[in-house]
Design goal:
By secondary structure, the protein is mainly alpha-helical. The chain has a domain of 89 residues: Helix Hairpins (Orthogonal Bundle). Helix content is 79%, strand content 0%. It is built from four helices and no strands. Helix 2 packs antiparallel against helix 3. The longest helix is centred in the middle third of the chain and has 31 residues. The N terminus is likely disordered. Keywords: ATP-binding, Cell inner membrane, Cell membrane, Kinase, Lipid biosynthesis, Lipid metabolism, Magnesium, Membrane, Metal-binding, Nucleotide-binding, Phospholipid biosynthesis, Phospholipid metabolism, Transferase, Transmembrane, Transmembrane helix. It is found in: Cell inner membrane. It is a multi-pass membrane protein. Pfam families: DAGK_prokar.
Length: 130
């Protein structure tokens, strides 16, 4: 058995306090957001859309729930984009040669982003109309 307590051994991790876990999780989340901003043009575009959506939603929304729906729908697109980025990264890590399953995984991630954009656009249109 390996005596290094800081390394993961067969899926087991050394115990950490809840505060340490929160701190590490926050740091890893920051790294993920930073990497997406640096390396993913689509994510940067969605961040710009989010920044535009904040003031625009105050003009469109009539209630707090509508405001939440408008902002939340844009954040949802960003969440799905991050998941799609993760899928693409792991598929590319496994291999860059053409593989039908890899292509399906990437296409499914792309379709998920597309559907989230349609949902967000629908929310904006419906709330703006009514």
């Amino acid at each position: 058995m390996n005596s290094k307590s800081s390394e993961q051994i067969y899926g087991e991790k050394r115990p950490v306090s809840p505060l340490q876990r929160l701190s590490k999780s926050t740091y890893y989340s920051y790294k993920g957001l930073r990497a997406a901003l640096l390396h993913e043009q689509a994510f940067r575009f969605e961040v710009y859309a989010f920044l535009l959506a904040i003031p625009l939603s105050t003009l469109v929304a009539k209630t707090a729930i509508e405001y939440l729906m408008l902002i939340g729908s844009v954040v949802f697109v960003m969440i799905v984009e991050l998941l799609n980025t993760g899928i693409e990264a792991i598929v590319d890590r496994v291999g860059v040669e053409h593989n039908e399953l890899s292509g399906r995984a990437k296409d499914a991630g792309s379709a998920a982003v597309f559907l989230s954009i349609l949902l967000s656009a629908s929310a904006w249109v419906l709330i703006a109309i009514y």
